[in-house]
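SEVERITY: medium
COMPONENT: batch folding queue
REPORTER: lab tech (J.R.)

DESCRIPTION
The queue accepted two submissions in a row. Attaching both inputs and their returned structure tokens so the on-call engineer can compare them side by side.

ATTACHMENT 1
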Amino acid sequence: MRTNFNSIKLTKFNIFLAITLGYAIMIFYLSSISDLRLPRTGMLMLNDLIRLFHHSDYALLLSPLSPLVMQRDKLLHIMLYFGFGLLLYLTLRSSGRSIASAVMLSVFIGALYGVSDEFHQVFVPGRSAGAMDIAADVTGVVFAQIIIILFYSIRGVLLRLSRLRYRYF
């Protein structure tokens, strides 16, 4: 059976799905590398970022997350899965799901993928799986969804304010 590639429509959903699947494959590939090290410039930037959070006025707010933030690999997990969480949301939202449904499914799928990624690492020489890695993965996905919810909340307030302004002024 031949596939006719001309019949594949470039819808918003298909584009986001392809990008999200590519991102998931990238995560899988990075997890398959036995000795994954950051380039020196990346490490310097990461150290600066950690120092910024450590010595800021927000240190008290970040203290519950200090085990994740102070361990460089956990911060990388959070950042990587933050991007994954955003892409999952955009993919699910473009499929016609409601905001709430897309957010909840993104967290579920992201957490499930994080667990499967850690399980995969058990079989990679030189790598190990851990509960803190899973926690960092889920934290990244959840942070992405919190940012999305905040975006829609702020957008809603601004839209209501602009309607009031035009109504009364």
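ATTACHMENT 2
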Amino acid sequence: MRRETRTTDCERHRVEIMPKRAAAATRSRRVRRVAGAVVVVLAAVSTTCARSDEDRIRRRLEELAQTISVEDRETPMIRQVRATRLTTYLTPDANIDVGAPFSPVAGRDAVLQVATAVRVPAGGVVVEFNEVRVTVDARTRRAVATAIASVSAGAAVGGELLQARELDMVFSEIGGEWLIERVRLVGIR
């Protein structure tokens, strides 16, 4: 005798719904993951974009210091690349006067020539901008940064402070970038 099993409508409904629920749960997890990733990206973008002009100028000075620092046994080709990169921080008609023994320099091309010709002590040099104070005029999109520029011997030769000068630097915002328009010596420390 064969036993007959009956399935109720409720059981058939449960069997049909379960795969749909599983698929919906998987879609929901994917949506949450994508939404979470979007939130992280938006937070990163807004943090980057929300940096103040003062912070952007300070960051430019840090990058500039790295660019004009010279490593031990740096090749002439690398120095040429650094000098070329230095000009990207300047307006086309930039005026630079950091005091003796350097003569005042006007224009990117002249800065490039001087930067490639500068003699650097054995062991290289490290440049830092310390005690940076920045004042931005939001109306004219110009800023003045005052900083102590320190030049130290490279780490290979002891890292001794060679010289420190207080400089006033005038920046102009051009095309969304803060570029140096003028550098003037305030005093030697």
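NOTES FROM REPORTER
The two ends are 109 Å apart (CA to CA).
No errors were logged for either attachment.
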